[in-house]
Known about the structure:
The chain is of the alpha+beta class. It has helices spanning 10-14, 16-26, 36-39, 63-76, 128-135, 154-160, 167-170, 204-208, 242-254, 267-277, 297-313, 325-336, 338-342, 361-375, 403-420, 439-442, 445-458, 476-480; strands at residues 32-33, 56-58, 80-83, 100-103, 110-114, 119-122, 140-141, 177-183, 189-193, 217-224, 226-227, 231-239, 261-266, 287-295, 318-321, 348-351, 354-355, 379-383, 389-390, 392-396, 484-485, 488-489. The protein folds into four domains: 10-103, Uridine Diphospho-n-acetylenolpyruvylglucosamine Reductase, domain 2 (2-Layer Sandwich), CATH 3.30.43.10; 115-227, 2-Layer Sandwich (Uridine Diphospho-n-acetylenolpyruvylglucosamine Reductase, domain 3); 231-340, 2-Layer Sandwich (Alpha-Beta Plaits), CATH 3.30.70.2190; 438-485, no CATH class. The strands form six sheets. A seven-stranded antiparallel β-sheet has the order 15-12-14-13-18-20-16, with helices on both faces. Strands 5-6-10-8-9 form a five-stranded antiparallel β-sheet. A hairpin with a 2-residue loop joins β21 and β22 (488-489). α9 (242-254) runs antiparallel to α14. The chain is globular. The chain starts with 9 loop residues before the first helix and ends in an 8-residue tail after the last strand.
Amino acid sequence: MSVMMPKPSEAILSRRQVIVDALRAIVPGEGVVDIAQEMAVFESDGLTAYRQLPLVVVLPQTVRQVAEVLTYCHREEIPVVPRGSGTSLSGGALPLQDGVLLVLSKFNRVLEIDYDNRCAVVQPGVTNLGITHAVAHRGFYYAPDPSSQIACSIGGNVAENSGGVHCLKYGLTANNVLGIEFVTIEGEIVRLGGKHLDAEGYDILGLMTGSEGLLGVVTEVTVRILQKPETARAVLIGFPTSEQAGACVAAIIAKGIIPGGMEMMDRPAIHAAEDFVQAGYPTDVEALLIVELDGPGAEVDHLLAEVEAIGNANGAVTCRVSQSEEERAAFWAGRKAAFPAVGRISPDYYCMDGTIPRKELPKVLAGMKALSDKYGLRVANVFHAGDGNLHPLILYDANNEGELRRAEEFGNDILRLCVEVGGVLTGEHGVGVEKRDLMPEMFGEDDLKHQQRVKCAFDDKHLLNPGKVFPELHRCAELGRMHVHKGQVAFPDLPRF
């Protein structure tokens, strides 16, 4: 494994059977898995290049069991890695050899649907698409829709602040979560927010959303549900170059048009998806935009004409508007199947996740072409063009010596390029282990220390998901020290309490 994880504690490993027995007393029956062969299914998440077995797997069924497991692990100083469906693409749920893998997949019930308040209360193991299925018969849906929505769980969505093709208009998970219940590492059960619009006091709910399992274990989520729009139509716009497609994206947003979704695919991704799904994509173009407009019918018709005109002004060579709901669904089926479809043209691929200002799309796409030549590896681009969230897929063969390492270096250079043009390291996949060592490219030492101080406030022993996000951990006592220079503290005129 090329990514270094914390060295396992020999003291914990030597107590393994005692730990397993103690956990079985908390979660009886089949809730504890400790046989290596049975734990193999949990050895990695969606970033399958990195894998290792956990110390033990625990699958609780109640909040009380979660609290008791965390209380025990805190007392015994045993690391804990929370895990949902395991679809994370950043190694966020990668187990630790000396840690408990706490799997929330049995928390899979929709607890309440409140149409009057436009929200649903669900357990973290409910799939993203499962929420929409639960409310579809009343004409409602849950807006964030990552491509893995058929499998990914809402708890994992909260941990990574997941998005999807419709996040441009309707927001990421953070914009659609109203409240959560979570358990601290000490076993305290905490509620934040609820069915009301905003949580009271400090925005701890915003802090927890996207915290990647470093601050607590989510056991319940209250999400916003929306009524389906009156009309939704999508248009496929093909371009002779990716740069022209990128310029079209910027022009649409500059016009003041906010599509329900706006996605882009380049030639390798177009061909892979079309061969896999037969969505009706043009295969003689270098780049394809899928732009969806939704709302009242008259408004949608007007905006479609505007988008077509912008596409033509930016060199579009083909334009096709969906004429039925089935055709619109087919357009999106190809996009949502793009990741697995790319598996048909390469034995392995490495999915990246950086976000850039939209106006920089042409520059970054050109930069990725140059990096592809440098590393001798192909890249297929599938991404949320509307908000600049890139998902380049680096194609490689792990059986060829050195290709995984080249793919990693290629990906690192893509992320450095994103930061260089004013972007960020991640849009929705999280940092995990994949981008952990690139954090100094974006944050200074003081920035990282302040982030770790937040971690210390929730988890003073660094037991929750250690080895993720922070390239270098500091002891909480060390971070809390006051620096004295030549006998003078900083700002000596300020009163101290």
